[in-house]
Amino acid sequence: MAQEDVFKKLVSHCKEYGFVFPSSEIYDGLGAVYDYGQMGVELKNNIKQYWWQSMVLLHENIVGIDSAIFMHPTIWKASGHVDAFNDPLIDNRDSKKRYRADVLIEDQIAKYDEKINKEVAKAAKKYGEAFNEAEFRSTNARVLEHQAKRDALHERYAQAMNAGPDLNELRQIILDEEIVCPISGTKNWTEVRQFNLMFTTEMGSTADGAMKVYLRPETAQGIFVNYLNVQKTGRMKIPFGIAQIGKAFRNEIVARQFIFRMREFEQMEMQFFVKPGTELEWFKKWKETRLKWHKALGFGDDHYRYHDHEKLAHYANAATDIEFLMPFGFKEVEGIHSRTNFDLSQHEKFSGKSIKYFDPEINESYTPYVIETSIGVDRMFLSIMSAAYCEETLENGETRVVLKLPAALAPVKLAVMPLVKKDGLPEKAREIMNDLKFHFHCQYDEKDSIGKRYRRQDAIGTPYCITIDHQTLEDNCVTLRNRDTMKQERVAISELNNIIADKVSITSLLKTLQ
Ligand code: GAP
């Protein structure tokens, strides 16, 4: 199945099974805003718990906070967001549609890549096992021609972005590449302008004195401005970290690909404060630690790659993304940045307060350097759902849709099913559920045939199902069915907790990180 079709199916699956709904749907939705349903919220909470515990429980020197979304507006001046948190925009005069100039160009680069990949796929089919891809890529005339155009465009684009960005040059690239508006099909473009991504609102009365405030575009600044509070009250010694999970808001112009790019989303960020000069060592360590966290979910190492930034923000001295293989290619899920002492120094300057750390080991004060790990909950959710979504053909020719979610993240861990709705089986099933519900999330289901019930649980990724039958009343055993293998075994009710709890717990997942 084409990856585009997989993605469409995933989006409708998310809706059909209560994972993600478009926001305000009965009013025809609100662009790039989504609600999480009864299954989605459980998966999301489990992702957050996995992250939080990996930070705060596994590291003695990392603590958490929960800062407010509203903050003093000067914070965003100090952080640079008021002046520089912009996207370059271009309008098509015929369709009146607005686009991000950089995204139009990146899409054009992706088109060259697609052309190359098509040539490679065609040749692979033609030559079969004898096909040497590396040789084909380095010798085929058409591939080389596309590659040369792609590289030249990439180079020109990188230079334009590095130069400020150079808005005139971005427009010129769009004209030279003859990029057309997907709606009107024309090249009738306006100038390129900068557009600030922060949402604003007013605090206080709307008469005199109302203050313009921003909805935070990242949670990180809430950590920076609480650095001193936490360091002093927690008697924290450098190196130490502060973790936070919370909502962030960006008025994204090109909001697309479902929950990949949203206007309201959630971040899990950790700022790690270190001694100046040690930051690149810590950057390396956090790069490895974070990749290990991702890989522990078991989707396969080939789903991940680093993308080291060539172009660094003026305050960063190293930055990398962890990218995940989504149905629409490798995409950023997490950013790891060495942010120097930029943010703390800026807040010192703008607030007039000293934010220094006195290091007793060297008897000196300094402004700490910071390594940041920043991951979007929603993007993580999307990566997990897209890797977990499977359509399988069964021996009897039927297909089943199954979410092969890591058991520790699955919304429901166990489905409890009486074989029939009579003969005391529902009562026995309830009795089992009443005991197990204290240990993990269970769902009771007695409607329809067992086959249909299994399909329903597969579709929401429930790792285990148990069936209570007449035999159960005599031998106190149930049939335990595994979601992935579909194998069934007879186990004693008294053993259920032992067998299942360990496999579905976040603690077990965390132990693999040690
Ligand atoms: N404090 C650093 C920071 O915010 P970022 O690269 O802009 O860095 C970090 O964002 C992560 O937040 C991204 O890797 C992504 O997972 C998530 N993210 C950013 N913008 C998003 C959006 N519009 N929708 C969903 N997730 C987003």
Automatic annotation (TrEMBL):
Its EC number is 6.1.1.14. Belongs to the class-II aminoacyl-tRNA synthetase family. Catalyzes the attachment of glycine to tRNA(Gly). One of its GO terms (molecular function) is ATP binding. ATP binds at residues 250-252, 260-265, 332-333, 376-379. The gene is glyS. One of its GO terms (biological process) is diadenosine tetraphosphate biosynthetic process. It catalyses: tRNA(Gly) + glycine + ATP = glycyl-tRNA(Gly) + AMP + diphosphate. Homodimer. This is Glycine--tRNA ligase.
